[in-house]
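Moderator note: this is an archived Q&A kept for reference. The question asked for a predicted structure of one protein chain; the sequence and the answer are reproduced below.
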Amino acid sequence: MTSGGDRSGPGRRAAAAGFGLSAAGLALAVPVAGACADPGYSHVSQFISELGARGAPHATLVAAAGFAPIGALVLAFLGLASEAFPPSSRKTAGLLGLATVGAAYLASALFPCDPGCPSEGSFSQSVHNLFGLLEYLGAIAGLLLLSAALRGAAGWRPLAASAAVCATLAALGFLCLLLPRLGPIRGAGQRLAEAAIFFWIAHASIALLRRRRESEEGAPA
């Protein structure tokens, strides 16, 4: 076993990092590419899910080539990265919290929102809203738990600090979605939350690659 509780091999860490970086890159690319294909779309006032809403110009493509792969990549990252982090109940709970992000993206592909993504609507909209709520609550709680789990582990403190910061930013973004008076900037608020979540996933992926390199060089990982 390597130091810091890392029980994963270099190949597993590399695969986890690849999935994590791919998820973060695709999460950035999908809203940008989708908006470019829909000139009337606003990143400030509209939800990301509206790109895949029923009746949207490229809804099927966004769901099949965007939301579904992002969800699968997040879950694959978490599954492979689990053994690389120091073992603890808080780590396990934190990763389960982050798993709601992957589940929510898969749900977005299977249960698209109604046009405009209202708070009430069809059955598909209700399921979509439920998973959206679970995503942000799960991600915020998960990041805080991971911050606590990694704070005392040698070599993981920078990742613990970024988890705390990203949890705070995600909470601020989520707050924008809850306050009706902030409706005109709800899209910007959601993007803040999503950026915080996927920044941490990317940071964790880079940390795993660094530990893989240290392990191959014979240094403590």
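Archived answer notes: The two ends are 10 Å apart (CA to CA).
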